[in-house]
TrEMBL record:
<protein>
    <submittedName>
        <fullName>Uncharacterized protein</fullName>
    </submittedName>
</protein>
<feature type="compositionally biased region" description="Polar residues">
    <location>
        <begin position="181"/>
        <end position="195"/>
    </location>
</feature>
<feature type="region of interest" description="Disordered">
    <location>
        <begin position="146"/>
        <end position="195"/>
    </location>
</feature>
<feature type="compositionally biased region" description="Basic residues">
    <location>
        <begin position="164"/>
        <end position="178"/>
    </location>
</feature>
<dbReference type="InterPro" id="IPR012337">
    <property type="entry name" value="RNaseH-like_sf"/>
</dbReference>
Length: 195
């Protein structure tokens, strides 16, 4: 909206100058400076949020790379920024960093981005990489230990037990579908596929 006001600044001034009661609403140079600073600081965020909102599923694994991008590129203070623009950028970055600074939250974000094949350990702090890798190994081992082992069918078993095994497989497929439905239902805030 601020960029639209800046675009139409001359037209707005002309409309207000024709009406004595509304003349005081004409934008001053200070108002224009403030609008330009706000627009310059926030317009990259609009582009970024529009791009993310266009995605069908946005997962928690995007959060760590997004914070990195905000800190190091989009909201990085530039020399040519006005004091107001610098202040706006710093406050946004400080707010976001503080919001996600909790240890448990950081661990969740590290695990999610480490499991995402697009990011892996790229955005995980080097000090935490070892512990994240250890936790991933432990969880994978735990999952493998809890999964019932199925032995491969031998040719002799195929003839007699084939119908029974098909029934078991169907039951397992139903269980998997139930877990997937439960997973997508319980984690709808973060979107499917974040693990």
């Amino acid at each position: 909206m601020g960029d639209r006001v800046l675009e139409q600044q001359k037209a707005i001034a002309q409309v207000f100058s024709g009406d004595r009661k509304a003349r005081h609403l004409t934008l001053t140079w200070q108002d224009i400076d403030v609008l330009e600073a706000i627009n310059k600081s926030l317009s990259p965020l609009v582009v970024f949020t529009d791009a993310l909102s266009g995605e069908k599923y946005v997962s928690v694994s995007f959060l760590k790379p997004t914070l990195h991008l905000f800190n190091n590129q989009i909201l990085e203070v530039q020399e040519e920024d006005t004091d107001l623009a610098k202040s706006i950028k710093r406050k946004i970055v400080d707010y976001l960093n503080e919001k996600y600074s909790d240890t448990a939250t950081q661990e969740l974000l590290d695990m999610a981005s480490a499991l995402d094949p697009r990011f892996k350990l790229k955005y995980v702090n080097e000090d935490n990489r070892g512990s994240i890798e250890d936790r991933l190994r432990a969880e994978m081992k735990n999952v493998m230990e809890n999964v019932p082992l199925e032995t491969a069918a031998t040719p002799a078993e195929d003839t007699e037990d084939a119908p029974k095994k098909k029934k078991k497989k169907k039951k397992k497929k139903k269980k998997k579908k139930g877990l997937q439905g439960q997973y997508s239902h319980t984690s709808s805030a973060t979107g499917p596929g974040h693990s």
